[in-house]
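User: I'm putting together notes for a lab meeting next week and I want to include a structural view of one of the chains we've been expressing. I don't have a solved structure, so I'd like a prediction I can at least talk through. The sequence is below, exactly as it appears in our construct file.
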Amino acid sequence: MELRILGSIELWTGSALADLGPARQRSILGALLVDPERPVPLESLVDRVWGDRPPAGVRNVVHTYVTRLRRALAHASTDLPEPIGLVRSSAGYSVSANLGAVDLVRFRRLLKSAQQESLQDQERSRLLQQALTMWRGDALAGMHSDWAARVRETLRQLHHEALSQWADTEMRLDRPGTVLPDLRAALLADPLSEQLCERLMLALYLEGRSVDALEHYHAIRQLIARELGTEPSPRIQQLYETILRGEAPAPAPERGGDPQESAAPQLVTAARPAPAVPHMLPLAPPDFTGRERELDMIRGTLTRPSETQPPAVLLVGGGGVGKTALAVHLGHRLHSAYPDGQLYAALRGSGARPADPHAVLGRLLRALGTEPDGIPADPDERAEVYQLALSGRQLLIILDDASDDEQVRPLLPGSGDTAVLLTSRGRLSIPLGARVVPVTELPHGHSMRLLARMLGKERVYRESAAAAAIARYCGGLPLALRAAAQRLNSRPHWTLHRYAERLSDEGRRLDELAHSSLSVRASFTASYKSLPEDAREALRCLGHLPVAEFDAHLACPVLGKDFATVEDACEQLVESHFLTVAEAAVGDQPTRYRLDGLQRSFAQELDAGRVEEPTEAAAVPA
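Assistant: Thanks for the context. Below is the predicted structure for the 622-residue chain, given as structure tokens.
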């Protein structure tokens, strides 16, 4: 019998694949098998399978799935000496089965056995190969919750660790060619893994393919620069230079020695110290405009000395409003205030796949000079190493586009020496007691200055009325202004007047404000998909109110809901920056909201069906 989660979630008895039911039902089993020795409380199980969007009556749905799973497991394991079951106790749900039947448990056991100091490399290689053959793709395939994505990324790093150890062992045994196909395949799925890249370069070099090794270095260097805005790790740069010099390789120490020395086979070369300070910030935007008030507030907070509490600022604003540009611009201006460097991480919180904090910790530790083999695979140990690496250093950490507190928490410093600047669309609490600085649309004058910087003063001043109209249609949103400028720069034969006429058509305005990777519609869609259904429905309906300003009473007939439900939906839309507060509640008068500009255009597109709706598999009725 085999219970598999290192790939799709499956149960095999002999050569037969058991029918475990629909995807959500299999997800229940997968959520229990990640740590099969510990019961999972009902609330945690719901979070693991559905995240923050459970269906109505989720407890009954879970009970239905568990009942059906019990039947499926009992039917599949009838002939086994130890039938499989699902057990419910006061601590939660757990799987009753032989732990050795779970592929993740066997994988961990084999990996631990392969790391014994006394083991010979031939036996170590055999154990590691046996462990690696258990992987059939991404772990927990078919589960789509945030929890599953985080676990999947953690297990992927564990797979990389096992693959790296096997590659090291094979290269010590003078068999570098055997590891090339597996390393290439793993890098296709995770091209930014410097741990695997280093092994592939070295295996190619030891195989006599120096040109291929150097070409791979150039490819990974370009990719890291484009995606992360930094350089490859010092180890990879040192390996590149050594390959260029054609120096002879020497075998690495046997496994079980100093962890810092039991990495991939070492090359005979002079030691090269790691850079004294990391500088991970992307390039500062050359046309940054305005924000003087925000810059003063942030600078005053981040440069205020503190013995214990790290100074922290949280920039909050809607998509495309310029939070990243503001953070990066300030990071460069405060360069001298942080002599030990700046760290930067794009957390992709508004995207479909937010960055895994475990993987981000690995990148930050490498930037701080920690060797790849000194970075633990265990999340708690990795966080401890990170805190030690930050201790006593005057650094600025910029965490851009944060998703939630769980993503941010492991990346925060523990002392007052390091300052933190976070950006988010508003789904964070206030980590480290951060000062919250709202980032809103640019005033009209600053929008005109930004257009002049991007298009050239002469072109803007020559058609100042048309430029002013373009700025108004962009609503002060820097993303929209940049998309407009890029479109105009790519079409120098267009007049500003002609482009302003195209923008005046509200039905196609969002089409006009998209160029290359810049798209107002895509930015709004990311925020829209994170909303609960009541708020999404409200936004679809509110786009066709005859007035831009309204209160919840006016919206009730349009939405067909009671006042409290409509008011809650409107407040969620305010938090997601689709609505603004036109007038705060006073006495019996409710809050008045405003929906206009590009947000109104987007809401009207929603109702017309031009934006793809989030999908959710139907729940099994209780």
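A couple of points you could mention at the meeting. Confidence is low (pLDDT under 50) at residues 255-276, 614-622. The first strand starts at residue 2 and ends at 4.

User: Perfect, that's what I needed.
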